[in-house]
TrEMBL record:
Protein name stated in the entry: Rhodanese-like domain-containing protein
One Pfam family of this chain: Rhodanese
Keyword Cytoplasm: no
Domain called Rhodanese: residue spans: 116-208, 221-320, 348-432
UniProt keyword annotation of Metal-binding present: no
UniProt keyword list: Signal
Domain of life per record: Bacteria
CDD domains for the chain: RHOD (cd00158)
Signal peptide (residue range): 1-25
Amino acid sequence: MLTLNRTIGVLLSASLLTVSMVSNAAEEITGKIQSIVYSSKVIQYLNPATKEVQVLKYSDETTLLEASSFKDLTVNTKFKAILNQDNVATQIKRVLVKLPDEQIIDTDTLADLLDDGETVFIGDARPTSVYDVGHIPTSIATPADKLAANLQWLPKDKDTLVVFYCGGVTCPLGPKALKIATAEGYTNVKAYVEGYPAWKSDVYPTHVNQAWLESNLDIHHVILDVRENPTASVQGAVHMPVKQLADQHEIWNSEKFEVSKRLLLGLRDKKAPITIIADTNDADEAIEAYEILSFWKYSNVSILNGGFEKWSITKRPTSTDGLATTLVYEKKLLPGAVEEQVFVTAAKTGDATIIDVRNPDEVATGHLENSINIPLADLDKQLSKVPKDQLVILHCAAGARASLGYTLLTKNGYTNVKYLNDSFKGVVTDNKIPLI
């Protein structure tokens, strides 16, 4: 009997040890970064297995693989991570595209080919919806998931240099398109692995097509005519000559004015889709305006392919009654984003719980009297301070951290929560909301 009891005890101990090991086992996940806040060390990512948006943390002790710093973890980066029981990554590895050197073309080489007028077919392997809002000049939409069924997109001469690109060094779509074209007998196919982010980073011009712009003549898109004295322009365009833009740029340079605060006609949304209009897409005015606005950190600036000359010839919607010089723009609300006026009312009346997810040093520079400060990195540990029986609005400095906080709260069962996807200082200044 004693032997039996000892045996049962040993088996029970082994079973408990196994359960303990499973509960403490590290979790391995794969994801695609949607947003990242370096100051708070928080990543919002799309889980491809569950199609859900989730949040993880990392720390200074997190091991990085295939990356030189956390700044390499940018939007759309594919990664694998090992998480501990606190949902903190102990290891993050970028999932880089791997191709033989002879199949890769770099940014400067591709730019030189375009500048020299060489024959090259450039296919954008990203989804068409992404291609539409900005693409490399002369490229055509060849989404990788549809290419095999649409080989007519490719040039007839299979010896033509064919280059595919997508969203950067972790994006598999360009290599996927390369594989399809090669299998069809194309003999000179390469992938521009650095892709669209590198092209934009080096401030090479990007284009939008005329048909796309015609379908987006609304207050959610900025159309900027930078010619000196246009008598007609794209319908809804606002006029600011490039000389005026350049003069302001020089003044701010001389004053060492902070780049993030440099605004085009008061436009706070640095992700606003901006289309530059000149007579042609390669006009000096268009290129200079593109470079200045890119320097000001507007991230979705492009030039109208074909310029106004083509727009006019194809008889697309045109304004001839004098161009506006005041910008009218409304940011398209993302899921969970709060309308500006709702936030303003809550800030002035206190009829919602406003949570400031900035860090304490930022809060010390000015905050709303009725807001609660819970830094984003601590939000999951202080859920008891967040009510579930009334509207909760999160804000940070510009919207990224508030968006992450929104995701975290909704994952924890909060259903009446919104976030301010805008410049906090800009909103409070424009609406004369006092800070303390």
